[in-house]
Amino acid sequence: MSIREGVAWLASTEWSIALHESQYAYAVIESIHVWALCLFVGFVVLLDLRLVGAIFRDVPISHMARRLLPWTKAGFAVMVVSGILLFYAIPLRTYLNIFFRMKAVLLILAGLNAFVFHQGIYATLSDRDVDVSPPRPARIAGMCSLVLWAAIVFSGRMIAYNWFDCGKPQPALISTLAGCTAADIDPYR
Amino acid sequence: MLLPLFQALENSAIGAAIRDSLWLFPVVEAFHLIGLAVIGGAILVVDFRLLGLGLRGHPVSRLARDLQPWVIGSLIVMVLTGVPLFLSEAIKCYYSFAFWTKMTALLLAILFTFTVRRSVSFAPDGRFSAASSRAVGVTSIALWSTVGWGGRWIGFS
Question: Which of A24, A39, A100, B46 has the fewest CB atoms in 10 Å of its CB?
Fold first, then answer.
């Protein structure tokens, strides 16, 4: 079974259709997604602003990590669960959406950035993380994170719009990247 | 009484320009959402601290003062992006319960944030009781959450 067949099967399940057709469930889940965005992205932004030396310069980065990361992780969990449900409500159209694919790639990059920071850069901070501008790698990781998360929020919001849905007039490259087949592009061919 | 005003606002040049463009509304909306993340984090981290959660061990006043420019800055971004979004669909907003809920909550949230919450969060630790700090934190979270939910629901109406 290809990914596409799997997604098409997902779209045919009873709960997916119920979610898609519900009057309020989808809107409530999306509101939860947006609320958790404030917590999760909001706290990520605070950690990043600390890393670039813009705020809380007298709060050790290790304190920020220890005391804010549990909340950030909780916010991320809510983002993931509500995000999966939003995907589950509209599986195939989302799977074939260029902005969804862009968001997925950006999420992987943000994950890699966080991984590199926590596995490598973070360990070098312990002795010099108070009241000084953090070392260059930490500032770069913070900058990358800020840019990536802004782009993720941006592409996430764009998933709702259908300019580039399969079948809309558009460059062939976008159709290819979005995974549109010839039948998606012109069902009457 | 307000309807003619909202009709005039809908017909404003900015409102018309956003309606006529395919991508302007979504792009402005996306920046509104990025601003939301910043203001959300800057408000929540202080409210959490007032509730005794998160950045414990650091004076509330230091956190709150440090974040004040970010709260004001992101609020300005929210207004600068929110007003054009409103202008593009002012008449829809006039008839939207979510819109009026959001605006009422926003007015209360701003008043509360720059009066009561400001005095409590800028005061040295111990000046206000833990109970009143918690009450301020809860009220702030409730007000700002209503603003966010109301805003999201304008789009569903």
Answer: A24
For A172-183, what is each residue's pLDDT tens digit?
A: 898 889 888 888
Instruction: For helices B24-50 and B130-154, give the axis angle rounded to 10 degrees.
Output: 170
| Contact between chains at A71 and B54 (C-beta distance less than 8 A) | yes
Would you call B55 and A67 a contact, using CB atoms and an 8 Å cutoff? yes
Q: pTM of the full predicted structure? A: 0.93
Q: How far apart are the first and last CA of chain B?
A: 22
| Dist. CA B4–CA B11, nearest whole Å | 11
Using 70 as the pLDDT threshold, list the residues of chain A that sit under it: 126-132, 189
Please judge whether B37 and A149 are an interchain contact, meaning their C-beta atoms are less than 8 angstroms apart.
yes
> Among A46, A63, A158, whose Cβ lies nearest the Cβ of B45?
A46
Give the integer Cα–Cα distance in Å for B27 and A73. Answer: 28
Cβ neighbours of B63 in A, within 8 Å: 56, 59
Look at B37 and A71 and tell me if their CB atoms are within 8 Å: no
Which token pair is B19? 């309606």
Q: Which residues contact A141 (CB under 8 A, 6 or more apart)?
A: A51, A113, A116, A117, A121
Start-to-end C-alpha separation, chain A? 26
Closest Cα in chain A, distance from residue B9 (Å): 25
**Residue pLDDT, tens place only, B50-65:** 999 999 989 999 999 9
Testing the interface with B: which of A45, A48, A99 to mutate, by most B Cβ within 10 A? Answer: A45
Break chain A into its structural domains and give their ranges.
Answer: 3-185
Helices B97-114, B130-154: inter-axial angle, 10-degree rounding: 150
Nearest to A154 among B30, B58, B62 (CB): B30
